[in-house]
Amino acid sequence: MNTNTDGLYRLTNKLFDASIDRTTAVVVGMIGLDALWWLFLYTGNVPMPGMMWLMKQGVPMAAPGAMELGVFHVGTLGAIVGYVVMWGVMMWAMMYPPMARFTRDYADVLRGSNVSVAATVGTFLAGYNAVWALSAVVPLTFHAVLPGGIHGFTQAHIHIVIGGVLALTGLYQLSTLKQSRLRTCCARVEPQKANISDGLKKGVEHGVSCILVCLGPFFLLMPFFGEMNYFWMVALTTVVTVERLPSTWGKEFSIATGVVSLVAGLLVLLFQPSLPLSFVM
């Protein structure tokens, strides 16, 4: 830090202990972008196709399958693109916290100038973001194939649906595929030369890997619990963040959530307790 007097320099050292190096800048950028994604969602500055029609029908935005119902009601290419953007921003908001560590480590091992490293990390995130946005095809497919769509099917078979997705999520959390992909996500990043095209490829590959890790929470629980429900968004963000801790604690947490989800699903299927059909925001 450049200062005019030695006294000010010493006072600053006593008050602050911070340095902005390459890895710190990456973490700052990830947190800043994550705050931006959450702000877009909270203020409604994302496309929500069919929102006015849903409101007239009395369907809460946070209800299971509400967003997909709105898209299919509008039925245009623009509505589908809008949904992909909305889904993408939602996934980025939830995935940037667990991705901060890996992105930081990735930037740390890149060899090259600060400009080339920044460009490589930028294309890495671009590829990663694109994969998550395009994963919107999964809930849209669910809505297309289920009788009455996600919303109607959940209304008609609420205990089977909620209990079923909880049990399936639990089983997936405990599966060999899940645990192997989780270890890959938490693995040490090898040193490599900064390269824009390699960064894009790495981002796409890591995005696919992350989808496989999050298949249960994000592609089973969220659509059938209501993806625009902030409670579930924060809860699932916490789950996928903690399970990526680079230690055995993360793996134990992943297994624990699998057991809890499986038991909860079986209890719902067996005892059919009273369940809310939709969740309000």
Q: Could you say which structural class the secondary elements and strand pairing correspond to?
A: mainly alpha
Total number of β-strand segments?
Answer: 2
Number of helices: 14
Which whole number gives the mean pLDDT? Answer: 89
Distance between the termini: 46 Å
Largest sheet: 2 strands, parallel
What is the CA-atom radius of gyration, in angstroms?
21 Å
**Percent strand:** under 5%
The strand order across the widest sheet is 1-2
Which shape, going by the Cα principal axes? globular
Overall number of domains: 1
Which parts are unreliable, with pLDDT below 50 for 5 consecutive residues or more? 1-11
Q: How much helical structure, as a percent, in the residues?
A: over 70%
What is the helix/strand order?
HHHHHEHHHHHEHHHH
Report on this model:
The chain has helices spanning 6-15, 22-42, 51-57, 66-74, 77-109, 114-134, 137-145, 149-156, 158-173, 176-185, 196-213, 215-225, 230-242, 248-271; strands at residues 110-111, 192-193. The protein starts with 5 loop residues before the first helix and ends in a 10-residue tail after the last helix. It has a two-stranded parallel sheet. It has one domain (21-271). Helices cover 75% and strands 1% of the residues. By secondary structure, it is mostly helical. It is globular, with a radius of gyration of 21 Å.
